Amino acid sequence: MENIILIRYEEIFLKGLNRNLFENRLVKNIKRQLDGIGVIKVTRSQSRIYIESHDPGFDYEEAKERLKRVFGVASISPVVKVPVSYEAIKDAAVAIVGDLIKRKGYRTFKVEAKRGDKSFPMNSPQICADLGGVLLDRFTELRVNVHQPDFILYVEVRDYSYLYSEIIPMAKGLPTGTGGKATLLLSGGIDSPVAGWMIAKRGVELEAVYFHSYPYTSERARDKVVKLAEILSKWCMGIKLHIVPFTEIQLEINSKCPQDYLTIIMRRYMMKIAQRIAEKGGSLGLITGEAIGQVASQTMESMLVTNHAVTMPVYRPCVGMDKNEVIEIARRIETFETSILPYEDCCTVFVAKHPVTRPFLDKTLEYEKVLDEERLITEAVNQTEVVELL
Ligand code: ATP
Ligand code: MG
User: Fold this and answer.
1) Residue 2 — pLDDT band, cuts 50, 70, 90?
2) Domain of 142?
3) Residue at 174 is within a domain
4) Does residue 163 sit in the same domain as residue 197?
5) Among 186, 113, 179, which residue's Cα sits nearest to residue 387?
6) CB–CB of 239/206 below 8 Å?
7) Same domain, residue pair 164 and 200
8) Across the strands, what pairs with 155?
9) Most buried residue, 132, 148, 161, 243, by CB count within 10 Å?
10) Which residues have their alpha-adjacent CB atom under 5 A from ion ligand 2?
11) Percent of the chain with pLDDT over 70
12) Within this chain, do residues 148 and 208 fall inside the same structural domain, yes or no?
């Protein structure tokens, strides 16, 4: 029934002079996301984007599904577009409402009209009243209910007339590619994919780094992280995943540093290596899934010591969230089911019985001195494997 998709965006309005840049990027991302499902025409008019296809094979359902993963899209509506003529509006309204009654069993409605084209002879209240009357005459089972109708028929008279009944909320955020790039420390857990998604939502491109401790962590643990990166990449138009061999560093730390400081020193190495990789790839910050107090390595004291290992900003979007709040997002972005697959990650292999919860920075720096840091880091970076996900 609908022949076009209307796309709304919100926050981009706030961007003043940058607005054009944001809109252009959004259109580009939409085209890219819809690539391969039929020939489309994308037009911009009056702060909206319209997608039209005259391709009989064009799959509107698939298009709607894919648009859910385009940051910057606030909501969409499947729309019937007809000329600016009241006869055409009436015909379209009758067709849409007839379909809703038949398909969804709807019985109550109201009309909301907006006249953007002031040369149109009826004003908005007149369109509502008259069209409501036409529909009541035509469908005797129908009633008006202004407070809680089964559906609202929206009529907008602009450059064309647009009629629709559905407003589907979308991801919101800012278009990917408008916010620079950041490097996500991606483990196989629940938090880090969510953290990456939250930063990506702000228009930031992602690269990801995974520390792999083969054979202490299995190939399946690696596959799980690749899978998570793949799911994330559908939201942010591709991810470069760096898989860093971490076993030697862990063995070194394990054999040379005090047991209760193993985790914190290991985490500092992760940060340092991630920063090295981030700098090479042009990232402007690091992202982790840390939340205050979640585990011993995420107390305020531990985070101070971890953070001290790097100079880049570290973004921790989950920092103030409860686990359940993180899980809710993980489910929504479809990483949860993969995250809970039971393959151990490297942090569970080399854990001390009693990791320090309040590490001291001076002690940490002292304990670390026995390690040949430059060699360990350079070797790990040089042996890093890169997987490009699209
Ligand atoms: P997650 O659910 O994201 O794994 P977590 O609650 O298990 O987090 P930690 O294991 O302490 O917490 O890790 C804290 C953060 O450090 C993770 O969110 C992630 O950003 C990073 N991290 C931990 N392990 C790895 C790893 N093997 N590779 C890459 N990053 C890691
Ligand atoms: Mg983890």
Assistant:
1) low
2) 2-169
3) no
4) no
5) 186
6) yes
7) no
8) 113, 163
9) 161
10) 187, 189
11) 96
12) no
Q: Record the pTM.
A: 0.92
Phi first, then psi: what are they for 159, rounded to 5°? -65, -30
| Residues 299 and 203 placed together within one structural domain of the fold | yes
- How many A from CA of 267 to the centre of ligand 1? 9
Instruction: Tell me the average pLDDT of the chain.
Output: 93
Structure tokens at 277: 């990789």
Kindly give the distance from the C-alpha atom of residue 187 to the centroid of ligand 2, in angstroms, as a whole number: 5
* Nearest CA, atom 21, ligand 1: 185
Domain count along the chain: 2
In angstroms, what is the span from residue 325 Cα to ligand 1's centroid? 17
Give CA 307 to chain center in angstroms.
26
- Give the tokens for residue 89: 């509006």
| Claim to verify: residue 85 and residue 218 sit in the same structural domain | no
Tell me which residues have their CB closer than 6 angstroms to ligand 1. Answer: 185-187, 189-192, 209-211, 270, 288-290, 294-295, 297-298, 345-347
CA angle 115/164/111 to nearest 5° reads 60
249 shares a domain with 337: yes
Q: Give the ligand with the smallest distance to the CA of 290.
A: 1
pLDDT computed for residue 385 by the predictor? 97
Atom 2 of ligand 1 has which residue's CA nearest to it? 189
- The residue among 293, 314, 308 whose CA lies nearest residue 358 is 293
Whether 176 maps to a domain, the answer reads no
